[in-house]
């Protein structure tokens, strides 16, 4: 099958990222945020229906590493938060790959398996605008706009309810555990580890103090 999705993956400046993990990793928090982003991007790029991954970041260190794993880095976001950064990335994706569906994917999915993303995107292709709630069922890990559908993400806080109220279709929950398993807290990281972390995060975790 021809790849038909452009993914937009937002990566916050590393010094501000993953504040809820500060207690676990101390000064390694930024490295952990970047390792999880690299695993997310690498898994997404292995997905047969993903044509390109656009990472949106104004962090120079993150940009270098994210380029190395194969993403196209988009800089110059407005600086007004996550949804504005996603819209900025989606505009660049549409410029470079007109005709693709555009899908926002959080960068904190270190256990992501390409087959799960492939299945969700296949379903999203027939749904106009769609989304997948995170594992706790409050937030969102993926928001997709099929070709021709408007891209209007509403991430932040209780975004599952917001996306649902906007008329976006909630995708099936079955068989997509790694796609829903975002990592904000130490407990989330343990849950992701139980699913199987990607190589960047695994390598970093092995260096962290017990
Ligand atoms: N480019 C960009 N990415 C963002 C921004 N805010 C959040 N993100 C990204 O959006 C996704 C979800 O982010 P959050 O969970 O809200 O923030 P976080 O830094 O991951 O974690 P906390 O500090 O614990 O809130 C992650 O991939 C972040 O890197 C932003 O303003 N710009
Ligand atoms: C921004 C979101 O992610 P998180 O739960 O990681 O803050 C969200 O779920 O809308």
Automatic annotation (TrEMBL):
Its EC number is 2.7.7.105. Phosphoenolpyruvate binds at residues 140, 156, 159. Pathway: Cofactor biosynthesis; coenzyme F420 biosynthesis. It is an enzyme of class 2 (transferase). GO terms for biological process: F420-0 metabolic process. Keywords: GTP-binding, Nucleotide-binding, Nucleotidyltransferase, Transferase. It catalyses: phosphoenolpyruvate + GTP + H(+) = enolpyruvoyl-2-diphospho-5'-guanosine + diphosphate. GO terms for molecular function: GTP binding; phospholactate guanylyltransferase activity. InterPro entries: CofC (IPR002835), Nucleotide-diphossugar_trans (IPR029044). Guanylyltransferase that catalyzes the activation of phosphoenolpyruvate (PEP) as enolpyruvoyl-2-diphospho-5'-guanosine, via the condensation of PEP with GTP. It is involved in the biosynthesis of coenzyme F420, a hydride carrier cofactor. Belongs to the CofC family. The lineage of its organism: Bacteria, Bacillati, Actinomycetota, Actinomycetes, Streptosporangiales. Gene3D superfamilies: Spore Coat Polysaccharide Biosynthesis Protein SpsA, Chain A. It comes from the Bacteria. This is Phosphoenolpyruvate guanylyltransferase.
């Amino acid at each position: 099958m021809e790849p038909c999705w452009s993914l937009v993956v937002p990566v916050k400046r590393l010094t501000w990222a993953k504040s809820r993990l500060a207690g676990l990793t101390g000064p390694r928090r930024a490295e952990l945020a970047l390792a999880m982003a690299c695993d997310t991007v690498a898994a997404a790029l292995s997905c047969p229906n993903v044509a390109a991954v656009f990472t949106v970041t104004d962090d120079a260190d993150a940009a270098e590493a994210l380029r190395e794993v194969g993403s196209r880095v988009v800089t110059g976001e407005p600086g007004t938060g996550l949804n504005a950064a996603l819209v900025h990335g989606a505009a660049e994706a549409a410029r470079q790959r007109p005709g693709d569906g555009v899908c926002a994917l959080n960068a904190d999915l270190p256990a992501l398996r390409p087959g799960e993303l492939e299945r969700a995107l296949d379903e999203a292709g027939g749904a106009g605008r769609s989304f997948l709630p995170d594992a706790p069922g409050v937030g969102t890990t993926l928001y997709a706009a099929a070709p021709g559908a408007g891209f209007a993400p509403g991430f932040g806080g209780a975004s599952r309810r917001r996306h649902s109220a906007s008329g976006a279709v909630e995708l099936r929950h079955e068989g997509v555990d790694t796609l829903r398993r975002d990592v904000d807290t130490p407990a989330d990281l343990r849950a992701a580890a139980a699913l199987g972390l990607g190589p960047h995060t695994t390598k970093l975790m092995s260096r962290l103090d017990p």
